[in-house]
Amino acid sequence: MAPLKKTTLVVKFGGTSVADPECIERISKICIREAKEHNVIVVVSAMGKTTNTLVDLANKVNPNARGRELDMLLATGELVSIAVTAMSIQKLGHPAVSLTGWQAGFITESAHNKARIAEIKKERIEKHLANGEIVVVAGFQGITEEGEVTTLGRGGSDTSAVALAAAFKACRCDIYTDVDGVYTTDPRIVANANKLELISHEEMIELASLGAKVLHPRSVELAKKYNVDLRVRSSFEPEKEGTKVISLKRIKEMELTKAVTGVALDTKQAWIGIMGVPDKPGIVSKIFTSLSKRNISVDMIIQSVPRETYNDVAFTLPKEDLKDALAICQEILKEIEGTKIVSDSNIAKVSIVGAGMINRPGVASTLFNTFAKEGINIQMIATSEIKISCIIAPDQAEKAVKAIHQAFELETSSEPVIA
Amino acid sequence: MAPLKKTTLVVKFGGTSVADPECIERISKICIREAKEHNVIVVVSAMGKTTNTLVDLANKVNPNARGRELDMLLATGELVSIAVTAMSIQKLGHPAVSLTGWQAGFITESAHNKARIAEIKKERIEKHLANGEIVVVAGFQGITEEGEVTTLGRGGSDTSAVALAAAFKACRCDIYTDVDGVYTTDPRIVANANKLELISHEEMIELASLGAKVLHPRSVELAKKYNVDLRVRSSFEPEKEGTKVISLKRIKEMELTKAVTGVALDTKQAWIGIMGVPDKPGIVSKIFTSLSKRNISVDMIIQSVPRETYNDVAFTLPKEDLKDALAICQEILKEIEGTKIVSDSNIAKVSIVGAGMINRPGVASTLFNTFAKEGINIQMIATSEIKISCIIAPDQAEKAVKAIHQAFELETSSEPVIA
Fold it and tell me: ipTM of the predicted structure?
């Protein structure tokens, strides 16, 4: 039995990183290289577009398929990946073993299709690590206490990896994907967008929520909770260090907080306004309780200064939920004694994120000046401690992102910019 | 909770019966129809050519992949099938649940890729049957006591079905395939081959071993051991009754044993002769022990009358094992003091099978007369209680099968023929 190494590393590979035998050999080499230094736990997603193919099959067989049987089907994708990844590592001469979600000890709640991890029973992985094996774990899946197969829903494999890193007190959790890190904004919009070397969990959550598709916010939230250091990097260019995602506290200690870390664009939102709502307690609560019961997640909520005895309440939500949400609002309009409902799905949300903006009052004015200079009308504004979001017309969105990226000098340097 | 029905039925569907959503809907209707009368346990194979696709993938990733990781990979095929079958049954309005091999309680030995079933823990299936659900079980797979996923090897899904039928004392085990039963011979050779209504386990084992690809002999052996009634039928023509496979004892009680039930042709064999072997104890044992150690299964073994102090020993074996077997024989030739080794891979084995032949001495002579009339030279003969096999030249094999089929009047009636 090989002596257990001092540090454990979790590495996670998404679908594009395990799409074919060539990709699988590439990631196997990464795992073996890391195994020289660490105990390595590997989490893999389903190969390429497998999950979509399985969903299509389910829809053909039963368009209403969901719950338990859909989980049974979807969980197979990752099982294929773990088996071939372990085979590939073995071929390259390193011992490896694949473990399903249940073999790896992922105990979840029983909410099928979107289960949350309740516990990781570590014994089995520990035994294999002690044998000197690279342990390849199926992401995205677990098992209930009753022995039912579950899947974790969106961002599931990232979440599996972070949960393992937390449970095994890993030195780091590397999330390998098909891009080489997190950028100051979408490089398809701003060609000289900068790769970030460092970003806090908090900023990453905001950027992820705002449309940077690299990491699912759920996994970053878990990393924040358990203080797991993440690294976003490319399996196609593993020599690059990627972007480090660490705690805001440590970034503050290093005095590396930035006024603006990144600019995000989200064109998949719509807004609804409920006009003339009486100014009395409990009304807003009624609206958002009704929406959350139907599983519609609301993003920006804006209620401005009351006009005499009534308010206008507006909120943004995913475009795909607009129709359902309008119906719900219409239902409760009488009950809450509002006057009318308005909506717009032709909008774009442009946001700046930066953990350092709270102490730098110039940030907001720089942002609004930039919009003004470009002749862009702001329809709504919402702010949090580390974020300012503005709703504008979608045909002006790219122009806005470019101008803001330049105004905060994000393209010239990856050094912190003091506003 | 619906009251448990009096009888339990196991139905098994092979890969061609679950190849696409249309096929799956077809078999779902069969299951629901049977569920009106029985508690139904469904065993499904992987969809269409899935298993071959998975084996190809494994070979691309690691040509030496085997054992544990190959099982992990291959077991996924059946998981897809059970999930979509359960979804499809649900769509048609009947409650259904899918169970993996481990969920269904299939405990196996730890021999990966060819595990034998040690036990079926029945509690979970019983619970779902008591709920009125059709239980869809993944064939071909199980789990060891240590929690490792195993597969059962060739004929695995048929074997899973028969094992369930034995464990649950099922009234019957229906094996659905793409043909409507077992025939007196291969209908591609003899156009008017007859579908058998009834055949004994013993005869079916011989026919299956001899090249009738409908049922794997391993599953029929298990059915014989536990006295499980099988029915071979088509999922594409479920209104047909197919062929009943029952115990020889019951066929004898019904006085329905036939002199000749079927004619089988096997062109995938070769033979090896070891010449001039000294006539003393232990020699033959040495030869076949060496072969079985290398996992080469020998079929016919022929040793004729000794000539003075030495023997010639001949045996048939699968063509694909000929090269290995010749090397082994060459190795031990000196040790056993034989003179030389001869072999031929250009042979065909024609066999007749019939549980009633033992009491009807005319059968062998009818067979040999038929060969003589057709001018076919017999190279080797071997017999068992219910079988006579002859090795002949392969270019005469089809002619032989046709003539024998006619000589025993197999095409005219499915009534027993008294020789």
Answer: 0.83
